[in-house]
TrEMBL record:
Superkingdom of this protein's organism: Bacteria
Keywords assigned by UniProt, alphabetized: Calcium, Metal-binding, tRNA processing
A Pfam cross-reference name: Archease
Name this polypeptide is given: Archease
Domain Archease: start-end pairs: 12-142
Family recorded in the similarity comment: Belongs to the archease family.
Key word Disulfide bond present: no
Amino acid sequence: MKSADLINLAGFQEVEHTADWAYRVWGRNLTELFIQAAIALYYLADVELTSESSITRKIQLQGVDYVSLLVAWLNELLYLHESENLAFNQFKILHLDAQSLEAEVTGTYVQNWQKFIKAVTYHNLSIQETEKGLEATLVLDV
């Protein structure tokens, strides 16, 4: 497999949405999907990190299914920005099943966050199987 093919197996793309802001993420598995969703969240908000020492946080979340965990995961990242001015650029999913997520994230303080995001919503959210893996479209309340 060519390296260009590997890049396309996981990723994200901004998509048009009438009222809010939306983006599509994809990955070969749930771990890649969750990580791409986080990377895209920071990319779309045009986040710049400071050059201070790295900070690592462990995140543990509960949910009723993978969709609720995906929303909780991204909203927790938004909460850490709002409460501690943190953003992350390294993500390690330690455990993921339909009811729980455990992750370790590493980043630092935010120097600049261009686009304010209130929350990640459940609007039309589902995780779909595709021939290449999994895909979801997330809508952000801005």
